[in-house]
Amino acid sequence: MIKKSKLITFFLVVAIIFGTVIFTAKPVLDKINLGLDLQGGFEVLYQVKPADGKSEVTNDVLKETVATLDQRINALGVNEPVITIESGNRIRVQLAGVTDQNEARKILSTQAVLSFRDANDKLMMDGSDLVPGSAKAVTNDKNQAIVTLELKDKSKFASVTKTVAGMAPDNQLVIWLDWKEGLKYKTERSKEKPAYLSAPNVDRELDTKKVEISGSFTMDSAKELANLLNSGALPVKLTEVYSTSVGAQFGQDALAETILAGIIGVAAIFIFMMAVYRLPGVIASITLVAYTYIVLLILGLLNATLTLPGIAGLILGIGMAVDANVITYERIREELKVGKSTKTAFDIGGKESFRAIFDGNISTLIVAGVLFYFGTSSIKGFATVLIISILVSFLTAVWGSRALMGLLVSSNALNNKPGLFAVRRKDIHDLHEGKQTFDLKTHFDKYDFVKHHRAFLTTFAVIVVIGIVILSVFKLNLGIDFASGTRAEITATHALTEEQINKDLKSIDMPSNDVSFQNNNKTAVVSYKGALSQDEIATFKEHFKKEYGEDPNISTVTPTVGQELAKDGLWALAIASILIVIYIAFRFEVSMGIATILSLLFDAFVIFVFFSIFRLEVDLTFIAAVLTVIGYSINDTIVTADRIRDVSNKMGRFKKPEDIAFAVNHGLRQTFIRSINTILTVLFTVVALIIFGNESILNFSIALLVGLVSSVFSSIFMAMQLWYVFKRRELKKKGVIQTQKKKKSARNDQPVV
Asked: How far apart are CA 137 and CA 222, in angstroms?
């Protein structure tokens, strides 16, 4: 008898999910901050050094510097700046949405030390003699913009002006901002644009607290100087060691392209799931909608900043979240085929699939945690989204999906309707036959995966040797993140030519031997071996903004930071690998952990070789992609390992090599389609990112594609073959291997419906 109350509850829950998403999606999206790569802006990393070259840079000094920078940024009118102190006496500043990046860069790095000197450059007064916050931009009686200051002690000013007045004809009180050793007033005064602010003549002793700074100020430049002086002088010297800037239009285009890629990729997943799994596929699609909404909601509540790699992580997470559904539905279908009732198949399938889902997600979570720890800026944003995605997928794809399915199953509306689960009646055995799931026939029963294990492993070894030769000859095409230097992207609404760009570069005296083109020649990429100075960056941006109407994107990395990023990338790869080995060894056994990590490292190696052959640029997102592949592709291995463990447990022991081969073959045959389907769901999103996504994450997406395709083969033909070799050696050394699983107390992983 059909329980209508369960059906009503099901449709009510679905209505609530879609109603919530439809009516609250816009407020949720409005709360999410977009990173500078999506709305334009710039990021800069400063090395903090003592102003006098001798003092120690303490934590208190760093905090004082951050406070001063924050005041300066507020004067710029930039919303929600991100200023963080990093190890090694560094400060990272991120300004999204800033309109004048050149002005912002200048104001941030200016030390803003005001000094009053005589014509012989002797210090008479400095910024400590000023009343804090007293600087004002006003106009004088000649309607000229000036800056007025108030002094703490008028008697000191009287003494200073008396001394300077007595130095006639060199009776100038020279006002400097950031005076440096070697600057001389008598040299500078002959220049059209002297380095000092102003040099008024002093004819008499002045008994006043008021000081005026005059010069060729506009009201805007006068306000800028007043704001600098009011925010205070920096207690340290800031040296720029890394920077990246993105034009506003570029950010908008990147956002639109990535969202389009996401919609196409997710739509492909929905169609695939419904076509392959029928009703369960529909439920998976519903929970994916809930999953996406909850991830965005959490990002909004955390006030997180969503970057371009972060959106890619969200899209990738959707493909990964559906894996739990694939694993569960395949298990349910197997239970139906051995003759179990719909309810029993649902209960057992959900319980048996939970282990593989849990292990796979924990492994990916380990990698995401390593990425977050070692990552910087946009990579940390990608890791954040990935971590949230993994946790939310447990809530929706595991518990949510099963809860919805549980309502339909418990309503009895699905009884004796295997077609709704894409199971043909002719494939269903009678329960009395006593068939077990690993007895079921597959399309791959005629294949003996273990028989040719030596050939498979030899093939992988040959690929590694050839890859090493390729890497040693061609090496990697390191981007500026690791090689250091400057990279500029010039964007126009029309196709650009190399002749045209070279002419432009020559006109600003900044020629380059490395000019390439992207986006149908509408984007020119110019690279320099050295890091451009602030003045050079300003000149570059001003010229190309004037010529083509859009701000070029410019990134600079010093050799020191480039080496550190490379070292951190290698450490991240090593630590992630070690942690995965430890976890797999704990959940399965050491031999499985070693076999697994060797296959994962092979996938990473293939990505390196592929990028070397095709001269694709290796940047920070490349490392993120490699680690993501390691974290995700382990799912395939775990699903197969979990099935082999089941088969081994039911066999009780391995007495001869043929027993081990039997377990491996059965595990591979029965999870082959499942492995293909789980990879396909992610490949849909990755391919969509490659075809429709933004150029900025193209190499990132290509690395994912190569790694995921490689993982299909390495999981089947390398990891499991290695495990077979390890177990066969163990058998030869120790004799009979007991595989019977010790019984544990009953545990119910199913949600209560």
From this structure: 5
User: Does residue 344 surpass a pLDDT of 90?
Assistant: yes
As a whole number of angstroms, the distance between CA 525 and CA 695 comes to 12
CB atoms within 10 A of CB 415: 12
> What sign does the CA torsion over 331, 333, 334, 336 have?
positive
**pTM as predicted:** 0.79
Among the residue ranges 103-112, 436-445, 650-659, the one predicted with the least confidence is: 103-112
Q: What is the mean pLDDT of the chain?
A: 87
- 361 token code pair: 């997600």
CA distance 420 to 436: 22
Q: Could you say which of 3.40.50.300, 3.40.50.720, 1.20.1640.10, 3.40.1410.10 is the CATH number of the domain covering 4-35+247-433?
A: 1.20.1640.10
70 class by beta-carbon count within 10 Å (0-12 exposed, 13-18 middle, 19+ buried) = middle
Token digits of residue 39: 């709305």
Domains 41-108 and 452-475+561-738 in one fold? no
Per-domain boundaries in the chain: 4-35+247-433, 41-108, 114-231, 452-475+561-738, 487-557
Phi-psi region of 307 (alpha: psi -120 to 50; beta: other; left: phi over 0): beta
CB atoms within 10 A of CB 170: 12
Confidence class for position 9, pLDDT limits 50, 70, 90: very high
Whether pLDDT at 619 is above 50: yes
Check whether 751 has a pLDDT greater than 70: no
Nearest-10 crossing angle of helices 401-410, 342-374: 170
The pairing of beta strand 737-738 with beta strand 514-518? unpaired
DSSP string, 436-473: -GGGS--TTTT--TTTTHHHHHHHHHHHHHHHHHHHHH
Q: 321 Cβ partners below 8 Å, 6+ apart?
A: 288, 291, 389, 392, 393, 396, 397
Q: Do residues 234 and 111 make contact, with C-beta atoms less than 8 angstroms apart?
A: yes
Q: What is the pairing mode between strands 523-528 and 485-491?
A: antiparallel
Confidence band (pLDDT; 50, 70, 90) for 752? very low
Residue 7 to residues 63, 206, 396, 407, 746, Cα–Cα distance (Å): 59, 91, 19, 7, 30
For residue 340, give the 3-state DSSP assignment: coil
- Are residues 715 and 675 in contact, defined by beta-carbon separation less than 8 angstroms? yes
Task: From 648, 641, 624, select the one nearest 707 (Cα to Cα).
Answer: 624
pLDDT tens-place string over residues 691-737: 998 888 889 899 999 998 999 899 999 999 999 999 999 999 999 99
Are the C-beta atoms of residues 639 and 497 closer than 8 Å to each other?
no
- Record the tokens describing residue 680, joined without a space: 């396909």
pLDDT at residue 65 greater than cutoff 50: yes
**What digits encode the pLDDT tens for the residues 460-475?**
999 999 999 999 999 9
Domain 114-231 belongs to what architecture? 2-Layer Sandwich (3.30)
Torsion of CA 128, 133, 139, 145, to 10 degrees: 60
Annotate 341-385 with DSSP letters as a single string.
-HHHHHHHHHHHHHHHHHHHHHHHHHHHHHHHHH--THHHHHHHH
3-state helix, strand, coil in the chain (%, to 5): 60, 15, 25
Top-level class of domain 41-108: alpha beta
